[in-house]
Every structure is written in structure tokens, then in C-alpha cells.
Amino acid sequence: MRRACRDMPNSQPPPDRIDGIERAPRRRQYENIPLPLIRDARLSYRALGVLTRLLSNADRFRMNSADLARERKEGRDAVRAALSELEDAGYIVRERRQNTRGQWSTVMVVSEEPVGRQEPHSADFQASVFQSSVIQASENQALKSSSTNKHYQKDTTTTPANPLLWEFLPQLSPEQQLVVVEKLKGLDRAQHQDVLDELAGAVRTKAIKGPWPQWLHGVIQKAAKGEFQPSLALDIQRDRKQRNEAEQTAAKRRADAAERAARNADPATTARNKEKLKAIGEMLHS
Fold first, then answer.
1. Do residue 99 and residue 173 come from a single domain?
2. What residue spans of 149-266 are helical by DSSP H?
3. What letters, b where the CB count within 10 A reaches 16 and e where it falls short, cover 10-35?
4. Are residues 178 and 94 part of one domain?
5. Which positions ≥6 away from 31 have C-beta within 8 Å?
6. Is residue 115 included in any domain, yes or no?
7. Is the pTM here over 0.90, yes or no?
8. Under 8 Å CB-to-CB from 213, ≥6 apart: which residues?
9. Using only C-alpha atoms, what is the Rg of the chain?
10. Which of 26, 40, 84, 87 has the most CB atoms lying inside 10 A of its own CB?
């Protein structure tokens, strides 16, 4: 019966054992920890430390919870709890493998990116991914500029010279705004504000899944093909209109109050007002 089960390709494999935690092949020959990983609010600092230790291993190198526990003062239970966190977040996945003798085992594979990009469980993760991505894009833009303009020194820390309205994207520094402006250059200028407001609306509603540069690139591609219709931008534009109207009303009230104060402070105007009041009083008593 056991032999028949082994020979049937569609049969349920027997219970297997855990053969350890294997480091997935790295993309580079040095360890570069992505910022979204470091700032992933779903992970405790303990889980983040265990993940960093596992990622430092050579490709395909294996170790288990006992190995990790021996290296630090945390016990095996604490390490296992951290591994469970990493698995829930998608940084560790289980792979079932069968050897040449038909025996099954499970390997826990760890990588620097959550497999499948699971939906984050907290709003902090969305904010951290957005901020991390915008910093990385800004750094890439700075490196590109320095490599192509080695002999040209110019201060680029000022706000970009463009008519775009950024008040609903306070997360962006002037350098980060430059990155967005560069991405918008391929579009008609009339589309720039709509696309920027769409980004602001996506950030506000936490609609961005994964790094925002890829999301923005997709929106820009649609706009270039004439397929972009503002949706998330509409609330941003409505709020901007209401804010502008409120500011104009407040400004008019301040101007009226200042004008009244100036009239009251003028001695001649004060004297005329007194004469008017006196004349009115005499008419009432006559």
C-alpha cells in the first residue's frame, strides 16, 4: 500500500519534516536591505533582526531555529515566534520538495521581499512604503544627475520651478518633487496637475499597493495613451476649491476689518462720526 501511494503522482504525499530555513538566491553580491522591509510596521524589531540575520547568509545556505537561538540570548521560543511573524508577512514561504527516493520534506525559504506582496495589515506600512519609495527614487535621481553632470555644480535643493500645486502631498521634499516632475515630462502640461492630484488621492486613501513609483508610472502610461480619467483626484480638487474659497472669504473679512480699523483711527473720520451722532441726537430730542 505504501509503495502504491508513492507511485501515484496525484496522491497526497505523506507528512514531511522541516529541513531548515534556506536563503533564497540574492540578486546582488552584497546585502542591500530594502527600505520598505526595514520600515515594515507589521514586523517587531525581534522579527526584523532575525530576518536581517537570515538574509546575510550565502545563497541556499540553511540554518534552523536552534542555530539562531545559539547565536543570541533569545531562546528558541522567541526565535520561533519571530519566524512565525516573518511567515505571516510573506518574507518566509514553505516549499515542499521531493528527493530522488520519493521522500518529501519542507524547506522554509527566506527572501528580502514578501512573496505575493500580501496586503499590509496596518496603515503605517502603507505610509512607510510610500515614504521609503519616494526617498529611494529621489536618491536614484540624484545619482543620475551627478553622473551626467560631473562638471556642472548647481544647487538643486530649492523648490522646483513649476506651477504644480503640492499642498496635498506634504510628504514630498523639494528634491522628491523633482522626481515627480521628471516623470511627468512626457505628458501634456495640462495633464500634470490631474496626475499629481491622482497621486495625492491615492496616498490619502491608501490605494497604492507596493512602491509608488511603479504606481505613478502606470498612471502616466494611461495618460499618455489617452486612457486616464481622474477619479481619486476629484476629491483632492474639490477640497482645494473649498479651501481656496474659504481663504478668499477670510482674506476679504480681514481686509474689511483693517479698513474699518483704519477709518476709526483717523482723527478726521472720528470727528465726523461724532458730529453725525450729535446731529442725530438733536433731531431725536427736537
1. no
2. 174-184, 189-205, 212-224, 232-265
3. eeeeeeeeeebbbbbebeeeeeeeeb
4. no
5. 55, 56
6. no
7. no
8. 133, 134, 137, 179, 183
9. 32
10. 40
